Structures
1.
Amino acid sequence: MIEVVKIPKKSKKQLDRASEIYAELVKHYPNAYCELNHNNPFELLIATILSAQCTDVRVNKVTPALFKAYPTPYEMAEAPLEELEELVRTTGFFRNKAKSLKESSQTLVDEFDGEVPKTMEELLTLRGAARKTANVVLGNAFGINEGVVVDTHVRRISNRLGLTKEENNTDKIERDLMALFPRESWTDLSHLMIHHGRNACKARLSSPPEHPICIKYGKNCECWKMRGLGSEK
Ligand code: SF4
């Protein structure tokens, strides 16, 4: 049985601040989108499984040959494991990922008539698909805002900008974000934060941030102290 997601309550001040940050993100990254290349829900599902612990750029290099060889779940379910391993080797954890590709394809064939399902509960039955994968597929292939994708960028920025106090538990971070931002923005929110993570709020910062979002909202962020200004309470 699927767990009911309990969304915490946030104060008006927190909601207003989140709304301002969202507007700024949209202003600065108007073209934020899903960077995993795909032509259909199946390709997005497979690309997302491959993107665990790997960059989207690397995944996009691997998927053209993979989808040429095995374009549908029917073909991928029948693929020799060693060939799948070879095709996805450079994405890391390739043995495990190859197994996930084959087994999830088999489940699509056996349980869903070869179609990618449109519910969180069903997507979570696929090997290699956790909540993050399911959110990517639901949001970007079907336009369903079921949750927020919490990847490494979203986790880092949510913490640094004080949108959550939870540092590691991605389910709790997701719930805080779901509480702070309106449902219709959930899919775009993760694209926006990922773009900010790549452009400004990098994991390692070697100089004080100059991005307008950081200047305006990052005053409690650790890296603000690099300016010698201290944190603002
Ligand atoms: S001020 Fe620093 S930590 Fe805060 S969002 Fe900007 S780059 Fe990230």
2.
Amino acid sequence: MAGRIPDSFIDDLLARVDIVDVIQERVPLKKAGRDWSARCPFHDERSPSFTVSPHKQFYHCFGCGAHGSAIKFLMDYDRLEFPDAIEELAGRVGLKVPYEGGRAAAPQQSDTADLYTVLDQSARYFQRALADSATAKAYFDGRGLDAATVAAFGLGYAPDAYDGLRSALGNSPQRINLLEKAGMLTRGDRGGMPYDRFRGRVMFPIQDRRGRIIAFGGRVLEKSDGPKYLNSPETPLFHKGRELFALWQVRQAQQKIGRIIVVEGYMDVIALHQHGLPQAVATLGTATTREHAEILFRNCSDVYFCFDGDRAGRQAAWRAAESVLPRMREGRQAHFLFLPDGEDPDTLIRQEGSAGFEQRLTAATPLSEFFFAHQESGTDLRTADGRARLAERCKEMIASIPEGSFRDRMLELLTDKTAIRWSLSASLSPQMREGVEEMLEERVAQLRGSSGPAAPAAPQPPRSSGAVDAQRSVVRYAVALLLQNPSFVESVDAPPYAFAALRRPGIGLLIELIDTCRARAAVNTAALLQQYEQREEGAALRKLAVLPLHGDAGTLQREFIDALAVLAAQTKQQRTDDLIAKQSDGGLDDAEKAELRGLLATRRR
Ligand SMILES: [Zn+2]
């Protein structure tokens, strides 16, 4: 674990960075009053419900609920880890990130940078070795790759030796340690000295979304004991369930990505790129995960999955479908393309060219069709039992689809398949018919009613009036005012707070916020939200951060002072009630009697 980054640094950073600039570089923003707006980069929509507030330094989407600080935006949009997002922002404003925990943390941090360096050096070592190897060059020639493609993908060759890379780059114990950590060296079963993991293989560098090399895939050149394809193991930089081969190249090739084609192998990807379809990516020796699906759809709304037509290919396709369904937000489309037996994208595009492959893509099976074909197989829809079984099988998966027209369409199809064929079958007794219909109706009602665990929260339109809500709870209103304007803390008297004892939900939170704002002068709305991101109160605070408040800063600050005064008065009332209750219960001591008299006197005034 890297050392903790102090909150005060994060405050300072979020105060210096302008979130509008950060987002503007990635999503075109339009000025809308005090704020900026855009079509949301996290869900598909026609009219903009994504707003960025320079005042609060955060973004919020009224459509899908996406929200957060500049840090959160980089994490979600660029898919960076928290410390990387901080590093990125700190780099923009020339700050150096301090890590608490001193020495233990510092080497860890430089380690990451060193890992990138050593992987980059490995790639260059493999490229030099390719230039020197007639066999390896002949392999790529034989697969029809031209020099530009070999260069664009940074392809290389790992010589058939146990200490090729190790002796070229591992000139100290620290370097050997780094190479091992980067997955480039292995110790095998016997322990002992680490040696080259990749031997006698053509090498495919795997890049992250920022173009940095994070791992390699290697394919054997000659028959050997090892597997045909070997990938880097999971390392601090490489998590195969989150990475897609060539996504970097796809994003480099085009400004606006119209579609992405997911294929199975490195050579398939590269052949498609070379033959005019620079939209191909591949998963790295794993099935398509939900994370993959989300990354794919964040880059474009049309995804084509390409599989072998055999049994294994169909199984892989089904796993992809399972991962994709919970990601099918409005406007997204997934298609499945099955290739003829014995063919793969590499061989097909070389035979048919991009036009031929394009035709296959046009004829690809939509997700809905593939879904039902798979679910219906082995089920006899002419029988009531078969139809009921189909409804049962589909129920959970359809419920996992986010609300929207795709889910409606799937429900419609399910109803058609289970009800229409039903009416064609006259041979069933009326009772049986009723039973199944009832069951299906119930199922469909359940489906429509439940949004499923993975579905996003229902859209929340901007509230027209904050005042109505605010009246419901003064505490809530005070929290909203302070959260949106942390500098209001200046008008709060030092503790103890007159309202500290008030038994109302949210009082503890209000006091915590006041203390935080007092202790951290630079804190802004985004930094406060960031702090509560992982906490239970986070969701409530996010709503309050976008609660529309009417009036200029001066008016709002007076309202904040008034709100605290109301809370103080309520606290006194509560104390009065408590004392009166205790009096009738068993009596008060002298101090309490005096206190009660005082309270009643002030109330009369
Ligand atoms: Zn959104």
